[in-house]
Design brief:
The chain is of the alpha/beta class. The protein contains 13 helices and 13 strands.
Length: 372
Amino acid sequence: MRRRSTWIALSVAVSTVAAVIAFRAQAGEPAVARELIVGTKEAPPFSMKDGKDGWTGISIDLWRRIAADIGVGFHLVEADDVGSLLQRVSTGELDVAVAAITVTAARERDVDFTLPYMRVGTGVAIQLDPTASWRHVLRSIVSYSFLQAVSALLGLSFLAGLLIWLFERSANDGFGGGTSRGISTGIWWSTTAMTQRVSGGVVPITLPGRIVALIWMVVSVIAIAVFTAGLTSTLTTKRLQGAVTRVADLASVRVGVVQGTAAQERLRQLRIRFEFVASLEEGFAELQRDRLDAFVYDRPILLWLTQRGEAGPIKLADVTFGPQDYAIALRNDSELRKRIDVALLEAVQSDWWKENLNRYLGSALNAAIDEP
């Protein structure tokens, strides 16, 4: 009788536990008994080793908070790159991947992503060497934009000289002597007038000719002033800030990017030519060797390295393009997706998140981060 009572009690207990698990599953809160396998890679300041066989960083701290909130255990394993992380998540070898992982359409086909926890644009690293910047200045002088400006000035001078000749050819011997000589004299006069070097010699004597000459003198003074100001500003900017001061500048310089990154897709969308480098470190090395003029990568990572002086004589250009969403990667069939999203939103909307970003990135970049 006692044995029968024991079996009945065990059956009731098992049934109760099964009912609780089923109820939690229906409520969207599955119980995870096993420890999750979470993959990561070194990508300061998102994920980095702390020197004691442990990990720290923006993404790692966020994941630890999420795991504590949803009540799951986990252990971290390291991968070589983001591609390897996502491949192991898609095959089920990893449950979660946490690092500097950006969301792209191609990646979304293979794995699932949580809601984004950060949105920051792609950054551009350039040389800090002043000698190299002078090369960029010289390159600007022979650029297409510079040649366009010079051609516009010469075109205006030619037009003014032609009009002067048309009005003066019959009444002014200085503009006579045949069509070729008359037009060349008119263009010479308009060019010297533009440079404010008219000193005697041939001058317009007819009323229409003098009206054209008066208008041209005023217009040429303004045109020269605008041209000089624009050229001075461009050269000064290039000298002080380097080869890249806007996204359009990337089309005229040697650009490097790590193959397989989201930055590569952004450059391809903008139809900007680029060269592949094997890694972030190689990109910096190629900049220092003057084999690249610009290196495109995740802006938070570039900022972290340049601020800490780990990038050498390299600085971050004041250029941002192609916003990138950072998220946590999950298996497509992950039953934790909903719970992680809720915990993630609670975390990034708290004061803890702002303090965490300030600790790693500083207030300057923190202010530029879009809220998810």
